[in-house]
Amino acid sequence: MFEASAIFDAALLPAMLVALFGGLLSFLSPCVLPVVPPYLAYMGGVSVTELEEARAARRRVLIAAAFFVLGLSTVFILLGIAFSAMGRMILQVQDWFIYFAGITIMILGAHFIGVFRFRFLDREVRMEAGDRGGSAFGAYILGLAFAFGWTPCLGPILGAILGLATMEGDVTRGTVLLAVYAIGLGIPFLLVAAFFPRLKGVMAWMKRHMDRIERTSGLLLWTVGLMMLTGQFAAFSYWLLERFPALGAIG
């Protein structure tokens, strides 16, 4: 029989995988992927053409992108702290909260799949950060603005991760989930900054298949919502421990 502490630790792994995949899908969303090259160029104080052709420009952009990712990670980690702390406060009604969150996430998943559309989720609210292109500090400020300004568009996936963080009811674990989400969203920015010329074809292919990417996002959200409603995250944790006994040593 597995110890309760081991099950709790292993239970975090499915949520971390969802958070990582959710961050990647957020990067591939219609309101993020198309603006990545101009954003990177602006942050690095170069043109898109220089980003394509000049290796020195890409190094400069990569440094700026690192600070940009740090900025957006700051916001998401603070959200993780806040929502996981809230989860501790609502422990007495957590079951009802999980049902509500699960149903809401399934509805948002249906939006992405295309069953129906919430138009306000297709818009982003951009926060201006001033003329700060070309500096590390400016890139960090832009990262903060990005995390706040794109929340309406990122909301469905980000909301699912925040719901999982609230379910944890533990500040450390909730913060880890949002940090993993930030990694899933931020690492592609760094990869594009470092290898933009080689990735132009891949990004063009992704833009052409944006509908499929959205439906994949919707399927992820719908599945997460269903698992929250039915308690399948716990069942999946048992399966992980049975399949990979070494996971019991985590924690």
Q: Any overview of this molecule?
A:
78% of the residues lie in helices and 0% in strands. The chain is mainly alpha-helical and 251 residues long. The chain has one domain (7-245). The longest helix is centred in the last third of the chain and has 38 residues, at 171-208.
**Could you give the order of the helices and strands?**
HHHHHHHHHH
Radius of gyration: 19 Å
Number of helical elements? 10
Strand percentage, roughly?
under 5%
Number of strands: 0
> Overall 3D geometry?
globular
Distance between the termini: 17 Å
User: Which range best describes the helical content: under 10%, 10-25%, 25-40%, 40-55%, 55-70% or over 70%?
Assistant: over 70%
Biggest sheet overview: none
Query: How many separate structural domains?
Result: 1
Secondary-structure-derived class? mainly alpha
**Low-confidence parts:** 1-8, 127-132
What is the residue-mean pLDDT, rounded to a whole number?
Answer: 75
Sequence-ordered SSE layout with sheet pairings:
Layout: H1 4-27, H2 36-44, H3 48-53, H4 55-89, H5 94-113, H6 136-149, H7 151-168, H8 171-208, H9 210-230, H10 232-243
Helix pairs in contact: 1-7, 1-8, 1-9, 1-10, 2-4, 4-6, 4-7, 4-8, 5-7, 5-9, 7-8, 7-9
Keywords:
251 residues; 10 helices; globular; disordered N terminus; single chain; Cyt_c_assmbl_TM_dom; mainly alpha; 78% helix
In a nutshell, what does this entry contain?
The protein is mostly helical and 251 residues long. The protein has helices at 4-27, 36-44, 48-53, 55-89, 94-113, 136-149, 151-168, 171-208, 210-230, 232-243.
